[in-house]
Amino acid sequence: MPMQPKKPTKLKRSSQMGSLYRLLKGMVEGSNLNKSSVGRRSVGGSPTGGKQGMADALAEMTKRSAYFQKIDEDVQKYAKSISKLKSSISAFQTKDMDELVKFHKQGESVLEKLTDESQVLARFEGFPSKKLEAMRTAAALDSKLNAIVTELQNWKVVTPLGQLLDKIERYFNKIKGDIEALERTKDEESKKFQSHNIHFNFQILVKIKELMVDVSSNCMEFALKERREAKAAKANEMKTEKRAADYVTMLWRAFQFAFRVYNFAGGQDDQADKLTRELAHEIETINNQF
Question: pTM for this one?
């Protein structure tokens, strides 16, 4: 899609998230309820001498001869396609990532046929190799970020809650470092792309953060739902200290994850703000019963 004007994110800083986290951490991890919970190859040797050295040299020359003959053949065979691609890449410019990906695939369909791309392209004076590399980098980055968007949009919130939190935490840990590193370098990367008339849409990073907050909210909502259902079905079990500790553990895990996502995203939306306060209230209520 064409890059749209920058829109304000729905995420915002919370005045109470940090203090809630510290309060609950002291309450839960300091209480008796949770005592048992949570817990290029290097070349070595002496030079080959005499007849063996000569034989090796001749073999290498023969091999290189056959190899470069194949390169010469590629130059002749694909000259028309490469010359056309050279002109297309030089003229290409876009703000549309889908258009970039499509153009990139078309170019690769030509280049993948070559015996040695760098050797063949070097025979075509003025081939825009740096722009080609920038296009490849941009296309790969767009593909990677869109894969994250798709994964988060399709994330299934299913029982059991513990395994759900394990899975989403592992995925969050996997992408967090990459997204944060990209945030630090995106201005530099953007200038590099723009120098080749490629305007990369880094707004996708905001979308990823918003989706991560949505998944976190779904987990909190699910934790609260499970707690309400279990409370209604087995009200007598809520009176035991062990059962209460189990609930606190899971609610606290959901809150901890939400706090990590909040820091990663740089804020949270109204729904996440509401759910974190509900979680805090439930944890405090159970904790005060014992």
Answer: 0.78
